[in-house]
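Q: Please design a sequence for this.
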């Protein structure tokens, strides 16, 4: 994933490695094996837990909720590099557990039960803790428990609602 900033402090996130447009109406024509999905999304670090824990998972919002999960890992990487958060060295999600080039097998052992670390300094920072809380709600293991992209968008546009959502809470490790 590539994150670029635009004038006015707007950011854009994109994947320049393997841009693929999936038609949601053509789900039934796609193979649903983890291996075939991995070929469409070659960065194993970002594969959602349901790819490893379910048989046939395709339904109307499956890919959307997988995108929310993957986006939460991108936001984790952004937080990881924030100067106010301690600016840790670059690392991929789960790299501390599986290294830089994990196999699907490596990821299948980690992803269903583990998430990248949310450091204490982030949870004490007034703004980063809000992003951490959103990340926690977006990387839940069960897709139906994740926030939707629309809900995240609304929360980011409404600071009062975001403050109310994460007011005083700390890391919730039950994902």
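A: Design:
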């Amino acid at each position: 994933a590539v994150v670029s900033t635009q004038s006015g402090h707007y950011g854009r996130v994109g994947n320049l490695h393997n841009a693929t447009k999936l038609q949601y109406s053509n789900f039934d024509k796609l193979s649903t094996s983890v291996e075939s999905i991995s070929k469409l999304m070659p960065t194993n670090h970002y594969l959602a837990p349901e790819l490893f824990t379910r048989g046939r998972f395709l339904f109307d919002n499956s890919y959307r909720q997988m995108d929310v999960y993957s986006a939460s890992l991108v936001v984790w990487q952004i937080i990881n590099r924030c100067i106010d958060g301690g600016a840790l060295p670059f690392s991929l999600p789960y790299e501390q557990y599986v290294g830089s080039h994990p196999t699907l097998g490596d990821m299948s052992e980690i992803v269903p039960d583990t998430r990248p670390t949310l450091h204490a300094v982030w949870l004490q920072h007034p703004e980063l803790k809000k992003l951490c809380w959103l990340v926690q709600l977006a990387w839940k293991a069960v897709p139906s428990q994740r926030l939707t992209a629309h809900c995240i968008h609304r929360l980011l546009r409404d600071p009062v609602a975001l403050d109310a959502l994460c007011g005083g809470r700390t890391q919730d490790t039950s994902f």
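Q: Thanks. Anything notable?
A: Residues 120 and 171 are 9 Å apart (CA to CA). The two ends are 24 Å apart (CA to CA).
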